[in-house]
């Protein structure tokens, strides 16, 4: 790909580098690790619309994080959790349709609106809110939402402690989790995506596939895919608390494990699809990233992809047990 360089007065190849840049956001200067295009010919920074848009989104998310505000993607997630259209959600909240569209498109919400949206993340809170405000919806909308809440209650009643998972990870949105609260269902869907495409997938390779997917999605969207943090371990980056997460997936029957003892003494940990089913919650954009990563490393064995990950800047510049920041996504070799 090429961009126009004003200094060279021509279309030119470029490298992408990470620099500290400040952006004005609602009267504040927000400094981020920005990805910029650098002309290979003269070394000057050149305009790249895609990178500039991603940097601006990152600045907005950093502003929201600083002021403890939900991101646009989180607001969308809250609405979609209840199967509501923008119009129905606005009607229930007694807001205008335009307000919801603005927030979901990136406009920063007021603190009062943010408090209400955060409150409604919990289905129990939504149930009580609906009881007090059901007159705002027509009968069809009301019935649909009541059925959705009943379904969510049934799901949460399964032998799985969502609260325990949420306590494993910090709720604060930082560069360490890619400015996204950890989403167990997204994580589970990503795990199943890769296992389906490799029937006897080794856990060592899966850890790297997840890391590259989250990093690539962050690089393109300014927010991670699953909200997982990744730590530096001897065989490369792995999801933080990965043993617990895979244990929960296995306990719920979503995946199963097999162990094969090799003559060398090394034990192969193989993951397979379990009998339990979960709803696929991946968007087309997320699937496209997963598919790209899977195709890139389709022919790689566990050792090969582990060695490949060891050459990443994020791995080289961290020590055993340290979190590998999503800031390194810009330097990722993919």
Task: Kindly name the structural category.
Answer: alpha+beta
Could you state the oligomeric state of the chains shown? single chain
Tertiary shape: globular
Radius of gyration over alpha carbons? 22 Å
Write the H/E string, N to C. Answer: EEEEHHHHHHHHHEHEEHEEHHH
| Strand line-up across the major sheet | 1-2-3-4
* Main beta sheet strand tally, sense and closure: 4 strands, antiparallel
- What is the percent of helical residues? 40-55%
Strand content: 15-25%
Determine the mean pLDDT: 89
| Distance, first to last CA | 15 Å
**Count of beta strands:** 9
- Helices, by number, come to 14
Low-confidence stretches: none
Written description of the protein model:
Helix content is 47%, strand content 17%. By secondary structure, it is α+β, with helices and mostly antiparallel strands. The strands form three sheets. A four-stranded antiparallel beta sheet has the order 1-2-3-4, with helices on one face. Strands 5-9-8 form a three-stranded antiparallel beta sheet. A two-stranded antiparallel ribbon has the order 6-7. β1 (2-5) and β2 (10-25) form a beta hairpin. The longest helix is centred in the middle third of the chain and has 19 residues, at 203-221.
Structure characteristics:
globular; 9 strands; 4-stranded antiparallel β-sheet; 14 helices; 3-stranded antiparallel β-sheet; alpha+beta; 334 residues
Task: Map the helices and strands.
Blueprint: E1 2-5, E2 10-25, E3 28-39, E4 45-46, H1 49-66, H2 72-81, H3 86-93, H4 97-104, H5 111-119, H6 123-133, H7 139-156, H8 162-168, H9 184-197, E5 201-202, H10 203-221, E6 230-233, E7 236-239, H11 242-251, E8 255-261, E9 267-273, H12 284-296, H13 302-310, H14 313-316
Antiparallel strand pairs: 1-2, 2-3, 3-4, 5-9, 6-7, 8-9
């Amino acid at each position: 790909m090429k961009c126009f360089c004003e200094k060279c007065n021509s279309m030119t190849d470029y490298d992408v580098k990470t620099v500290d840049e400040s952006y004005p956001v609602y009267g504040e200067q927000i400094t981020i690790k920005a990805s910029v295009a650098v002309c290979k010919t003269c070394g000057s920074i050149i305009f790249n619309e895609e990178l500039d848009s991603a940097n601006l989104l990152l600045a907005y998310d950093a502003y929201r994080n600083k002021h403890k505000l939900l991101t646009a993607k989180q607001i969308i997630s809250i609405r979609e959790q209840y199967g509501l259209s923008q119009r129905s959600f606005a009607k229930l909240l007694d807001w205008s349709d335009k307000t919801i569209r603005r927030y979901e498109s990136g406009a920063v919400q007021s603190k009062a609106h943010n408090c209400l949206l955060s409150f409604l993340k919990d289905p129990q809170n939504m149930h009580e809110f609906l009881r007090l405000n059901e007159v705002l919806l027509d009968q069809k909308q009301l019935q649909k939402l009541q059925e959705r809440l009943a379904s969510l209650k049934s799901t949460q009643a399964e032998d799985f402690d969502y609260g325990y998972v949420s306590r494993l990870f910090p709720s604060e949105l930082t560069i360490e989790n890619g400015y996204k609260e950890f989403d167990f269902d997204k994580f589970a869907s990503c795990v199943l995506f890769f296992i389906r495409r490799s029937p006897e997938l080794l856990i060592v390779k899966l850890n790297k596939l997840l890391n590259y997917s989250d990093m690539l999605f962050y690089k393109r969207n300014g927010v991670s895919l699953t909200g997982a943090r990744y730590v530096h371990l001897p065989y490369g980056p792995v999801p933080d608390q990965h043993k617990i997460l895979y244990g929960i997936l296995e306990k719920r029957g979503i995946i199963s494990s097999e162990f094969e003892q090799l003559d060398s003494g090394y034990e192969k940990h193989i993951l397979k699809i379990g009998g339990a089913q979960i709803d696929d919650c991946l968007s087309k954009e997320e699937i496209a990233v997963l598919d790209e990563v899977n195709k890139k490393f389709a022919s790689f064995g566990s050792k090969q992809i582990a060695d490949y990950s060891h050459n990443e800047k994020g791995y080289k510049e961290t020590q055993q047990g340290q979190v590998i920041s999503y800031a390194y996504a810009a330097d990722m070799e993919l």
